Amino acid sequence: MKKIKNKLINIIKAINPFSNKDTDNKILYTAKILLTTQVIYFVTLIIAEGLIIGISYLFGYNATDKQMPQNITLIISFFGYIIPIMAFILYTKKINKSNASRIGLDNNFKPYIKGLLIGIVSLALIILPLIICGAVKFNGLNKNINWLFIILFFFACLIQSSLEEVICRGFIFHRLKEKLPMAFAITINVGFFLIGHWSQMFEAGTLIGIIGVTNAILIGLIFTVLTIKDKNIYSAIGFHHI
């Protein structure tokens, strides 16, 4: 009984998110990284939600009963993702005693532009054939465009895509590949990315859901390949941003 108790204690210590000591056991190491990811994400998300509710009250809205316009709510919620992003960076620096490059955030921002261009070209290759075939019609630019909203939405989407990449290709993939074979690190980070989008996959039916799962796996692999090639997550963020 004492041996079992000691073993459980050792397991708990090995997967403790707030310990800087890494275990050589690959299974426990993986469990620690995934557990740490969940703890950081959900705790900071609660903090962000609290701030959003507080800010909404300052502007005369009650965010809990959907009084705030949906587009404003969406932008504010996306900007709230700055908090978990900063939390992953602070965790890496303060708990792991490492710099942000350990999770793919170095000072070489140029790959972001490359990723952005790849995303634009990819999107064009999808939309142009639809326009040519008549499946999508282009009726000109909307003269009543709210440019302030467009600019805010652009940066809001950048923050949202950055969070997903910091979690999947940054914290999970970069940390797992330190001790796991590359194939396992890739599989786990892509799987985590898929699970994060799973709840929305099958809302429109089984066939659409299967297509969605396939797309999520493929795009997750592409983001990972870009991350490996550029040795940081900025190109993946750029592509994901589009």
Low-confidence stretches: none
**How many domain regions?**
1
Distance between the termini: 55 Å
Strand count, sense and barrel status of the largest sheet are: none
Mean pLDDT: 90
Structural class: mainly alpha
Q: Give the DSSP E fraction (strand runs of 2 or more residues).
A: under 5%
Report the strand count.
Answer: 0
Radius of gyration computed on alpha carbons:
21 Å
The sequence of SSEs as H and E is: HHHHHHHHH
Shape, principal axes of CA atoms: globular
By DSSP (H or I, 4+ residues per run), the number of helices equals 9
**Helical residues, percent:** over 70%
Overview in brief:
This protein is an all-alpha fold. The chain has helices at 2-14, 26-58, 70-79, 82-95, 110-133, 147-176, 182-197, 206-230, 234-241.
Explain what the structure shows.
The chain has one domain (2-241). The model has no long low-confidence stretch (mean pLDDT 90). The chain has 242 residues and is mostly helical. It is globular and about 75 Å long. The chain has helices at residues 2-14, 26-58, 70-79, 82-95, 110-133, 147-176, 182-197, 206-230, 234-241.
Describe the secondary structure blueprint for this structure.
Elements: H1 2-14, H2 26-58, H3 70-79, H4 82-95, H5 110-133, H6 147-176, H7 182-197, H8 206-230, H9 234-241
Helix pairs in contact: 2-4, 2-6, 3-6, 4-6, 5-9, 6-7, 6-9, 7-8, 8-9
Structural descriptors:
71% helix, globular
